[in-house]
Amino acid sequence: MTACLIFPTVLLGRRGVRCVCLCVFVHQPISGFVLCVPKSTPERKKKRAATRPPSLAVPSPSSLSSPSPPPLIASVTVVGAHCCLLPLHNGTLKKRRFFQHSSCTQGGSEGDRSVIMAHIHVCRHGQDMDNAHGILNGHRNEPLSELGRRQAAAIADKIKESGARYAAIYSSPLQRAFETASVIGATVNVQVQVRADLIERDFGVLSGKPYADIPKYAGDKVLQGDKVLYFLEVEGCETFDKCYERARGVLAEVNAAHIGEHVLLVCHGDIGKMLQAAKANVGWQEGLKLPYFANTEVISL
Length: 301
Prior knowledge:
two-stranded antiparallel ribbon; 2 domains; 301 residues; 5-stranded mixed beta sheet; Rossmann fold
């Protein structure tokens, strides 16, 4: 019987494991088995024979019929060894440093940075002709009344005296809001920009109707706010949930465009309430219950 043992041998260097050797040990040759060993000279054969211990002598072929062969390990004779050097990958010899790239270490991820928003003030327009006559205006485009123009001039002076410096003034496209914003802009020397999404909520069939007609057209679809009865649904009107989403869009865009800056939005009562609700992260129903938003009142969001 012939036994062949193959086991790895580790060679050490000054910096740890340098290579692995696969050593082959063969016990008792058999026909047809070829072992590749270095070519030996007669002098080397004599030297090996003189130094070989008697107990480790290679058995002759006639001894293969022995009924009780010696234990395998005790009788193993090294006939030849072929070493395969397997250099280890350098990456396994040291710990890799994490976050080695500057993109991983400078400033952190965007999610880790605190969000700095704009400082937003909201101003309702001065009194217009519809306000003066108790008419629901919505998208009606009436000018300021005489009182409304005085209100606009007064709030412009207060803003200037306060020392507030606006990076931008945005206005609804409706005349009553744009007139108010223009007076303020001229006083504080800031050009007014029009934003269509600051327009008042569309009142539908109630546009141009007196306040007293709200129950007639809205029925029980109303909500009592502070000093104002709000109609929730009538034919052709913009619902408050849509107005609320529009307000959220305004805040998102203004915050993104004016990080850390002061901005004034000149708009209307209903959209102004929705801006307050969106900023406070409450629903539109809660927003309608906020304190009354008077003409030319300025609210800090």
